Amino acid sequence: MIRFLPNTLVCIVWFFLAGQCLGLYGDALTQLKLSALEGVPHAQVRLGFAYSRDPIKDEEEAFYWMSMAAGQGVPIATRFVGYAHLEGKGTAKSKILARKWFVEGSRMGDSLSMIGLSDCLLAKEEKIERIGWLLLAREKSESLAKNRLESAWPKLSAAERELAEQMAADLRKTIRETPTSPPPPRSLRKKNTLKLSNGDSYRGQVENGIPHGFGERKSPDGHIYQGSFQNGLEEGFGTLFSPMGIITYQGLWQKGNPVRGPESKGQ
């Protein structure tokens, strides 16, 4: 009979749960990230959800992948990015940006984006619009909208109720039909591979023959960078891995160099 020490059992359970959370191990995870970097929305959303939960919770990385999917018009991702900005999880807290992404999701018919948007419309002059979105969310059988309207509707005057119903009718016209599955990537429809002048290999988005967008750079000695590029250099959010696959830095980059701060990993 094989016996495990308590700490060993904890490590085994944690590793198993992490694998279950992603449904992937080793090379499979790498391939999923490559697919996400190549613009596949399903891969981006899958990674975003995986990194938003324990045992591998990483709010910055979850936001990174979801923001890629949101940029391609995936409703569930636009909602995620909206709440991330509203609550300051994995990114800067910004009600303005939260509202922007909730509007995107709401206009694609996502009822929970409508709830998020109503949380941003708290000024007195925004009351009618807020109720209008809640009415539309209730039409989609959203229980949160029903509960909020049960509280808010009795407090409205007859004139305000009429205005709210007209607002809902006007907002309904702004909602566009969206496909049930994520759209194909807009900016990249095939794999691009490059051999860079310094000997590194690159796979990802390319513009004018150089890395630009999301991609992966691998050096001859095995160091790997996965993240954003601009005009051939690392720019934006990215992760640097050692040849052993250990994260040595994760965070913001500018002009090819890491911007090290107190929240950066691998310091």
What would the keywords be for this entry?
disordered N terminus, disordered C terminus, 10 helices, 267 residues, Serine Threonine Protein Phosphatase 5, Tetratricopeptide repeat, seven-stranded antiparallel sheet, alpha+beta
Q: Strand sequence of the main sheet, in spatial order?
A: 1-2-3-4-5-6-7
Radius of gyration: 22 Å
Number of helices: 10
> What does the average pLDDT come to?
84
Summarize the SSE layout with pairings:
Elements: H1 6-22, H2 26-37, H3 41-50, H4 59-70, H5 75-87, H6 95-107, H7 111-120, H8 127-139, H9 143-152, H10 158-172, E1 193-195, E2 201-207, E3 210-218, E4 224-230, E5 233-241, E6 247-254, E7 257-258
Antiparallel strand pairs: 1-2, 2-3, 3-4, 4-5, 5-6, 6-7
Overview of this protein structure:
- There is one protein chain.
- This protein is α+β, with helices and mostly antiparallel strands and 267 residues long.
- The protein has 2 domains: 167 residues, Serine Threonine Protein Phosphatase 5, Tetratricopeptide repeat (Alpha Horseshoe); 66 residues, no CATH class.
- Helices cover 47% and strands 17% of the residues.
- The chain has a 7-stranded antiparallel β-sheet with strand order 1-2-3-4-5-6-7, with helices on one face.
- The N terminus and C terminus are likely disordered.
